[in-house]
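Lab meeting minutes (informal)
Scribe: AK
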Amino acid sequence: MSKMSKIVETALEKKHREYMDNADKAREHLHERSLEEDEPYKIPKMIYHTKVESKDMFECQMLLFNEVEDCERLVIYLHGGAYVNEIRRPHIIFCDKLAKKVNACVFAPIYPLAPNHTYEETYEIVEKLYMHLLEMNKPIIIMGDSAGGGLSAAFAEYLAVKDLPQPENLILISPWVDITMSGDYDKVEYDPMLGVDGARELGKSWAGDLDPKDYKVSPLFGEVDKLPKTTLFTGTHEIIYPDIVEFYNKLKDNGVDAELNVGEEMTHVYPVYPLVPESKEAFQHIVEIILG
């Protein structure tokens, strides 16, 4: 673990959200979020590598990075936040850098969040976006982190169920693949960010009336044999590390071209943190994967 990574992990521990490992606190957080209106997301003021703008697409605010005619590929990026928290600055920085490095137009939906919304509305938005991108006849990459990584995997399974074309690449950064948190987490020595009981409550809210073990919200339990080339990133300092390894093994057992990248002593979604050296290595690997 690099010195900067340790600094980031210590900072995350100090900001640890109690609602991630306490069910009562999670319900309080959901109540607080339910009182907040769905305000439009304001793009942070900073120096960008690409043109960044907000558009209304498919009844959803969509952030677009590098929307130019000569872009060579298309990326759908689904942000994390336990399905209750909005997109964050590190996500914006990541999407902007990625769009520049691989000459892609990156679409980041500001999708509706729990508890006022469930997975259903987001599926409608992402499906419409995906069908729209298919018409452009360019390589498509679907990727996301944490909850967004789980959503990315689940959506790919959904495409298979509907017998629709798969993206060229599926890239999952610390994907939350089991919102029921039913795995064995005793062997995870440390996680400065996440927990079990609180996360489970947040997951239930996202699922709504759906069984939380349904593949649409917990892709660990879905059919994976038709998934495209899939690249996963995870750190050993995250509670869901065992679930991600299990999902990877399931992909391999079903003949999927899958690759697992494990960051020793790395925390949740470490590839998204711009100042961490290990993040830069992971980002470069993502670029190489996309460029083939």
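Next up, CB showed the second protein from the same session:
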Amino acid sequence: MKVGMIGCGNISAQYLKTFPTLPDVELVAVADLDMDRARAVAAEHEGVRALTVDELIADAEVETVLNLTIPAAHAEIDLRAIAAGKNVHAEKPFAVTADEGAEVLAAAAAAGVLVGSAPDTVLGTGTQTARQAIDDGLIGTPISAVATMMTPGHERWHPNPDFYYVPGGGPLLDMGPYYIHSLVTLLGPVSAVIGASSRLRAERTIGSGAREGEVIPVTTDTHVTGVLIHSSGALSTLVMSFDAVATHAHPIEVHGTLGSLSVPDPNRFDGEVSANVLGSGGWKAVPESAGYVGASRGIALQDMATRGERLRASGALGQHALEVMNAMLESSGSGQRVEISSTLERPEAVPLADVRVSA
């Protein structure tokens, strides 16, 4: 599958490291609003051409567009690529609003092309081993989960953090997809949410790069918490913050009738899963049993290339997570429970496998 990448910013470096290891995927072109940046990337990767965005979308060799633009541009670029007959895989969040995301899915269905959505971290051994443990009944019937992400904000390290502090950003839409994709993979879809949020600072100061010391406005909530009510009956508590400093909590814990499971950071592909089963005497490591071994960002493109419509990191999953996140913000404003209109089957499990080739 020949891929054209739009967006050569910070996150692109992780995808560029992955491409040479994917046996059924080839990067053939890159584009960026800053053509110098696109040319610099192309120069470092043999056989990769630097194109304008318009040229890449129209290019006959490109079968799939990897959309690494800022969140506000995700839907626009996806729709343009779909109209040109391309598959798309978008960075998270899938779009800014649920209506935008629904338009992308409808356009793809009408055009007969595939749509994928980051994060694909859920395809790695961390989340997949935890899922296998749940499916095997290790902790009994799942009752609840707690997912926690605390950081004082990305402006400390990101040289251009503006988009983190406008609608479409914030801790929920930026980091929430990792946790919600994982929770849906573990416990199934969400049917309703109850949310609350706050914004304690109106400004942030950039801490690195050419704009160090510049003050930027904050126009979205920076601490969001709430309850996700899964269709299975399980209840997940989600806490996402750009205001707090740190937490000792496990990134995700799942609690069942027979025990509890510690799930590694969903922003990573691997990590130790541990369980505390009733009567076992404490926490013990769960052997790695499922997922793509050694996976990194972009493994979903391999999944798309080989599985087609059965791709796991799907646009439907990205759209469901987007609806959940926007519903949490809506609930925060109204004080009311919000029902989720979309649903989906849990993405198919990933057997333990290493599909990489030597880079």
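CB comment: Residues 124-289+313-339 form a domain with the Dihydrodipicolinate Reductase; domain 2 fold (CATH 3.30.360.10).
No objections, moving on.
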